[in-house]
Amino acid sequence: MTDKTAVDNEQTHFGFKQVDKDRKAAMVADVFHSVAAKYDVMNDLMSMGIHRLWKRFTIDCSGVRPGQTVLDLAGGTGDLTAKFSRLVGEKGTVVLADINDAMLKVGREKLRNLGVVGNVQYVQANAEELPFPDNHFDLITIAFGLRNVTDKDKALASMYRILKPGGRLLVLEFSKPEHDWLNKVYDMYSFHILPKMGQLVANDAESYQYLAESIRMHPDQETLKGMMEAVGFEQTSYHNLTGGIVALHRGFKF
Amino acid sequence: MPTAQLFGAGLEQAVNRLLALDPDTPQALRPLQGKRLSLDVRELPWRITLAFSDRVDVQMGNDDSDADASVTLSLAIAPTLRDNRQLTQLIKAGELSVEGDLQVVQQVSQLARELDIDWEEVVARHTGDVVAHTVFRQARQVGQRIQEGVQRWQRTISNAALEEKPVAAHPLAVAHFSDQVDCLRSDSERLAARLAQLENQLNDKA
Ligand SMILES: C[S@@+](CC[C@H](N)C(=O)[O-])C[C@H]1O[C@@H](n2cnc3c(N)ncnc32)[C@H](O)[C@@H]1O
């Protein structure tokens, strides 16, 4: 099932629930407000640390250079930003943008403690209406963020607009496992174990139930690739990671 | 599991931990700020790129990287890279190929060479000063004896070779050498016993 078939004009899904479109952003905000403080710990726990390797893979595919301008969209607690900040160096800039100021705050504090200062800007922004000029960024990454966005086509178009010609977009997101057996194991994990872990560690089963559901509702590899092409991205491709549990999509603007 | 990234993460951790042990690292890294060096190691399936800032970031398989310098080598000669004088020889011998800014390669080689780690202090952080000091003093003594032994042996061998022409060691030299090995063995056994004793003392205290 893809987003397009599931959504009519006024309603969208929040996990498996149908909610009014204009309420989804607020509900997503609630989820991340309530998980912000424990976010990093949960990430490590939920993915058994593998999310770090998925993120490394994203950076390895970024082709980022000293002096470039990078947007880490839905950047949350800034894992990617920390590394980009060193890779673009003093003459480059990294913008950490997120819709949620609680996540931004945790991110800012974490990065400051890591000694990352100087070339990083923090911007509260909605991916659907990015407050940046046209043709501005060499690279945009959005890691585990797109599935939370209400209107994904609008968000992708907005990213396309602010990307420089020659620039690239990388979307790291949960996707569809390549094998049936993996799908079953993964379902069992995300609907039974994950919410319990969320309850134990963050005392918040509901948010993690939402995460599991939102992962299932997210477009699969080919659908997302098609969505990127529809807004203008070229040379689009994707690479499955960990059996397709996660996929990295890449597209260029020329 | 992204294997290349797992390897890269491990390498990056190891390199930065090692660098963090030398207080002069920030200064040594300064001339390399913003530079990138890519390594094609013959035995590994991926290109490794080192990006220098106030630490070292490792990127894997980054084939469209425009690094400042790129080096192709095999693992066997990696340890010799610390010696700048050998760089040119290795390049001439075709063991090592360098493209781009040779200075970057030399600076990295220098960084490795000048890495000055006070291992005694590192160990002391975990065991306490007294134990670290004792262990290192003994280890140094043993090390010295080994070196002396090896030097003496080298002298004997070269004398023997000069005097007797055939390269085989003179029976006397061999006997002498075995004596020294015995002596060394008992030294190291004594050290092992001493260590065990220290460990017991430590356990008793704890
Ligand atoms: C799962 S976190 C990912 C954080 C980080 N990129 C990482 O990989 O660790 C998702 C983030 O997306 C943000 N987000 C959700 N909807 C958004 C939107 N419409 N625009 C921008 N950010 C959004 C959330 O606030 C949250 O911080």
Molecular structure report:
The complex is a heterodimer of chains A (254) and B (206). Chain A has helices spanning 3-6, 21-35, 39-47, 50-60, 79-88, 101-113, 152-162, 180-202, 205-217, 221-230, and strands at 11-14, 17-20, 69-73, 93-98, 120-124, 137-143, 163-174, 234-241, 246-252. Helices cover 47% and strands 23% of the residues of chain A. In chain A, helix 3 packs antiparallel against helix 8 and helix 8 (180-202) runs antiparallel to helix 9. Chain B is an alpha+beta fold. Chain B folds into three domains: 3-113, SCP2 sterol-binding domain (Nonspecific Lipid-transfer Protein, Chain A, 2-Layer Sandwich), CATH 3.30.1050; 119-168; 170-206. Helix content of chain B is 60%, strand content 13%. Chain B has helices at 3-20, 25-29, 84-92, 102-113, 119-127, 129-164, 171-205; strands at residues 36-41, 47-52, 56-60, 69-73, 97-100. In chain B, strand 1 and strand 2 (47-52) form a beta hairpin. Chain A binds chain B through residues 50, 52-54, 56-57, 59-60, 63, 65-66, 83, 86-87, 89-91, 115, 241-242, and chain B through 1-2, 4-6, 8-9, 33-34, 36, 51, 53-55, 57, 59-62, 64-66. Chain B: It is found in: Cytoplasm. Chain B: This is Ubiquinone biosynthesis accessory factor UbiJ. Chain B: Keywords: Cytoplasm, Ubiquinone biosynthesis.
